[in-house]
Backbone:
């Protein structure tokens, strides 16, 4: 402690105020907790020791050092043990990595005070910058080891890949991996985010699965694996194409001008907020659609329809060439959401007698455009995944004559997997003709038995009742794997494959625009570690 030989050899300590500062006019005895006034003189302190603690005088045994012992809110508190301080330092490093904070935030005095108050330890010091960098590197290596071990135990794994250009005009290639662990938990993790100096050519992209960009599709042809284009990209592109030069085109153009009138003027935006309050509606800005942003057109229409009256009143406040959609156009917009969700179903796309002519025409164009893109979408893979999902194994989404082919393909896949596992290398010594003929007969008989066994496996799986839409297919497979072991191997392969490249795109939007701005100033060698920490430590789970 401070002052007068450490307040008589640490037998006394200054009182600590509620704000963790020291009150140098008050001291308390470390032995009996008696509080006394202190005016830069130790006479009263010595008198207290003589009167209350005479055994301490002249004794060779000194009291234990209490330099880190303080009084907070009337309680006797100690500084945090080393193990807790170490855990806290690791937690700070993890927070910096996941939240993309600058490492020099450990020098922030306000952060240090927050931790001191929360821990009741006014002596706590944040770890140094060097210690934090070392902890982050250790977290990265630990996470990398865990992911490597988990991938090594997985029978199959699926990859998604996407390109991204930073605000600093640097190209990055991101890859995510998806697989099931032994308990049928779907795990998704970032594998790499590498900086590339080359252009987005197919030769550079030939290491991963992709979205539906032309360079990604060309890269997929170089793969020795199955390629599944991003279904969401495909559907979004079909919607965009069908809306162009459609009966909706002029109405959407009017909506865009209406949104721009309020988005580009703070005064107009404020006027709209006042009108929303006047109509007892929540304040919300109207959204502008972006060609490359999924469902942005739908969101723009939804907000306009929710704010028809506030928009009309706000436009009436001053002269402008911008006009509201007519009642007929608003009715047309109300029909718009029923088919623009990416969750497109066959029933929604079927025309009915109640559909207006423009809506029936749009549905026909949409269906035709989707059919033209089917050959490029690896429909066989998607159908197999549907059959292996116990929620949709009845295949009612397919036409009746298309369903048997799916089950025949499943049987063939099971037979091929069985033959690979049971195939043995040929003996080096040639067999005599008689033995060779007998061996061929045996092999043919064995092959027939395997085919019957494979067919029985498929039939037993088909006989299982379909589960409800709210039930978890992974939980079902975890409970029924023992009964359908061969089919379960294929389910692990097909159900772990994402139908979209969304997981990979999340690498570049994990923390929104703030992360993108920070990445523009990051060194390329730290980019990979950044995304491994963000996606690997967060471990988001993709639901089937």
Residues:
């Amino acid at each position: 402690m401070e002052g007068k030989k450490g307040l008589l050899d640490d037998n006394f300590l200054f009182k600590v105020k509620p704000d963790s500062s020291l009150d140098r006019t008050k001291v308390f005895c470390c032995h009996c907790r008696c509080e006394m006034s202190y005016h830069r003189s130790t006479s009263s302190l010595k008198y207290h020791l003589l009167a209350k603690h005479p055994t301490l005088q002249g004794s060779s045994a000194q009291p234990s050092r209490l330099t880190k012992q303080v009084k907070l809110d009337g309680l006797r508190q100690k500084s945090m043990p080393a193990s807790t301080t170490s855990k806290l330092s690791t937690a700070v490093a993890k927070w910096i990595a996941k939240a993309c904070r600058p490492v020099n935030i450990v020098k922030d005095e306000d952060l240090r005070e927050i931790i001191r108050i929360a821990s009741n330890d006014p002596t706590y010091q944040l770890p140094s910058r060097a210690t934090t960098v070392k902890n982050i590197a250790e977290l990265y290596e630990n996470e990398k080891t865990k992911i490597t071990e988990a991938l090594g135990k997985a029978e199959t794994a699926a990859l998604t890949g996407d390109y991204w250009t930073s605000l600093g005009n640097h190209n990055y290639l991101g890859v995510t991996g998806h697989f099931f662990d032994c308990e049928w938990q779907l795990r998704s993790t970032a594998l790499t985010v590498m900086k590339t100096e080359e252009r987005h050519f197919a030769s550079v992209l030939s290491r991963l699965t992709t979205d539906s960009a032309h360079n990604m599709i060309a890269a997929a042809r170089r793969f020795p694996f199955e390629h599944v284009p991003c279904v969401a990209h495909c559907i979004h592109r079909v919607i965009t194409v069908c809306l162009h030069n459609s009966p909706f085109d002029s109405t959407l153009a009017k909506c865009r001008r209406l949104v721009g009138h309020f988005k580009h003027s703070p005064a107009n935006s404020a006027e709209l907020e006042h009108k929303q309050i006047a109509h007892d509606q929540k304040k919300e800005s109207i959204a502008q659609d972006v060609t490359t942003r999924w469902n942005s057109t739908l969101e723009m229409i939804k907000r306009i329809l929710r704010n028809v009256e506030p928009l009309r009143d706000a436009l009436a406040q001053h002269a402008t060439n911008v006009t509201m959609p007519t009642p007929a156009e608003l009715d047309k917009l109300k029909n718009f959401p029923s088919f623009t969700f990416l969750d497109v179903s066959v029933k929604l796309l079927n025309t009915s007698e109640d559909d207006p002519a423009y809506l029936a025409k749009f549905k026909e164009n949409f269906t035709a455009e989707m059919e033209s893109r089917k050959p490029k979408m690896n429909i066989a893979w998607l159908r197999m995944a549907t059959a292996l999902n116990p929620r949709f194994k009845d295949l009612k989404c397919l036409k009746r004559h298309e369903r048997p082919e799916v089950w025949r393909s499943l049987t063939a896949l099971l037979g091929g997997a069985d033959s690979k596992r049971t195939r043995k290398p040929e003996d080096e010594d040639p067999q005599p003709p008689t033995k060779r003929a007998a061996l061929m007969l045996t092999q043919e008989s064995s092959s027939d038995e395997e085919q019957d066994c494979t067919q029985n496996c498929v039939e037993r799986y088909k006989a299982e009742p379909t589960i409800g839409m709210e039930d978890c297919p992974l939980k079902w497979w975890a409970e029924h794997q023992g009964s359908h072991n061969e089919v379960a191997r294929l389910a692990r392969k097909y159900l772990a494959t994402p139908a979209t490249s969304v997981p990979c795109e999340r690498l570049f939007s994990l923390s929104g625009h703030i992360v993108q701005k920070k990445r523009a100033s990051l060194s390329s060698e730290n980019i990979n570690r950044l995304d491994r920490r963000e996606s690997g430590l967060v471990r988001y789970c993709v639901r089937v």
Q: What stands out?
A: Residues 82-137 form one domain. The beta strands are 12-16, 22-29, 35-37, 70-72, 75-77, 158-165, 171-180, 186-196. The chain has a mean pLDDT of 77.
